[in-house]
# Entry
Amino acid sequence: MKVDPVLFAKALADETRQEIMKCLCCVWLSVNDVVDALGGKVNQPTVSHHLKKLEEAGLVMVRQEGRQRFYTLNQEQVTVCCGNLIQRFAPEYGKKPDCR
Amino acid sequence: MKVDPVLFAKALADETRQEIMKCLCCVWLSVNDVVDALGGKVNQPTVSHHLKKLEEAGLVMVRQEGRQRFYTLNQEQVTVCCGNLIQRFAPEYGKKPDCR
DNA sequence: TTGACTTATTGATACCTGTCAATATATAAT
DNA sequence: ATTATATATTGACAGGTATCAATAAGTCAA
# Structure
């Protein structure tokens, strides 16, 4: 799934959302787990809203289980998108010294 | 100069700003040069506004020359910030297969 | 000094978005 | 069926921001 670099940046351009991503790094959490992990900073609808944004950017994966939905960070997507940014804005960095 | 990952993402989270970054990739341009390069999409004050944002995020370098100010993309900063994002959100990607 | 040029700043406006309260939807348990 | 639980959606509101027109500030030329 190819992701627009602006969409990717927009998804990252929020403090709370980056905290959520941190929580979901390398582990599957339900929505309420995330709410708890944030320690009452925001409430459940807000977390759902952020998770939706992250999902639209392809940054999280979802797995339904009973009445819960488990999310985890898509680390490959993060890596790919960051690589795309470097490709786009620093293509020859490290190659042509005269460019700097 | 250490850059906050949220600030970095915010700087990238705009279509016009990414276009400006593209223009400034590997070349020094005056403000009016950037305005022209964008082909009348936005006017001069708007470009100045965006350049200020990019400067605050450490993504561009500035050089004064006469009455003009020349900007260029700081490719090293882009590379470093992207590396930081990967470090933060995909630290062990490619190392621990059990993590995926 | 005056005028021309380049860029930054200010004020106004419209749009976007993060947040919450309330509610809806869906699923499981009894 | 009814109740409880988990999550998503809606509506409202406040704060942020992208944009422009107008103006200011700084610099060079004459």
